[in-house]
What does this fold into?
Amino acid sequence: MSDSMLSSKNTKLEDRRDFLKAGALIAGVTLGPGVLFYGVAHSRAPEEGASSKQRWGMLIDTTKCGDGCHDCVTACNTENGLSGKTGPQDSQWIRKVEIKDLRTGYVQSLPMMCQHCENPPCVDVCPTGASMKRADGIVLVDRHVCIGCRYCMMACPYKARSFVHEPLHDQNPEVPRGKGCVESCTFCVQRVDRGEKPACVEACDTKGHKAMIFGDLKDPESEVNKALKSASSIEVRADLALNTGVRYQGI
Amino acid sequence: MARVVNLPGLGKWFRLAACLGAMAFLAIPSMQAVAGVDLPKLEHGKGDKCVDDEDYIRRHHPDLLKHHRDETMRKGIRTTKYSLKKCVECHAGSKTGSVASSRQDFCVACHSYAGVKLDCWDCHATKPGKPPVKQAVQPAQPVVSPLMPSNGGSQ
It folds into this structure.
């Protein structure tokens, strides 16, 4: 009686073991292509859309950023059709900022733009839902819905957003812009969706500074993730707990 | 006049004739007006045919474009079938190179006939391809930012 029970238990155990083995094998087989697919997900199909499996982000090394170099700003203006003027009513999606340690006199130069927060205050305050965060973490303004109230401009701690005051002409077909709407850095979403880098990052690389690294923060193999792992970096205004997509190194 | 109307027989026929005359008189200018508004003559776009049946597109293009704009803007879906940019690429006029620069251009021709105001072109480019690069103004010297007081933390 007890023998038969034991044997039946053993067979059950063996069955379970086989089942687990088979399961692991199946999991391995199915996971293989899945992992591969994840690896090449950077240039996705047009019908696929943005996915929360990715989060686009940037690491800016201020020690490499050239003093007096404005190539990132110029590239942004060209790509997005901005005038390049810096008056109070002109759009600036990225600006070079100098910070000075008042005790030591040490001056640093860095680019500042929309930080693509995980918890964006601009999205919180928007009364129409125009200010939005895409699944892949890019914070955008839907101009079809924007009423130009500019609450988001007041809410942004980084002064990243601009309001278009005058009618515009000859826009870039990929970057529609118009009077009466708020706008800001889009991480060059039209380029990112094609699998390219934002214009500012490309310009910085071309110049040879390589101060900006762009990539997927959720991909452990991405260049930006490896760089973030290997050195200390900070969020600007980390006290606000916004979990910015743009991080700085060397400040 | 009252005497004529009061005459039996003659008055009836006179009134009928007067009515017909008046109707004809009123109809002439209105017929001229109808004849004066021609249906918009649209330039044939590039390629053989539109992305869908033309009657369907004519009736539903506002909904298709609106649906597609939300898909692209909010979800990042960048299919080209109902993309406004692709419409512009095919339908830009041969004279102006635009879909909305003159009364003969594709979008404006129909919309002015239908009396429907368009505001797509306040933001969207009416011409395909990138515009010539404007001479960018050299950015001003950066200012010392009040964003990040790098004075060792003490203000």
Summary: The first strand of chain A starts at residue 56 and ends at 61.
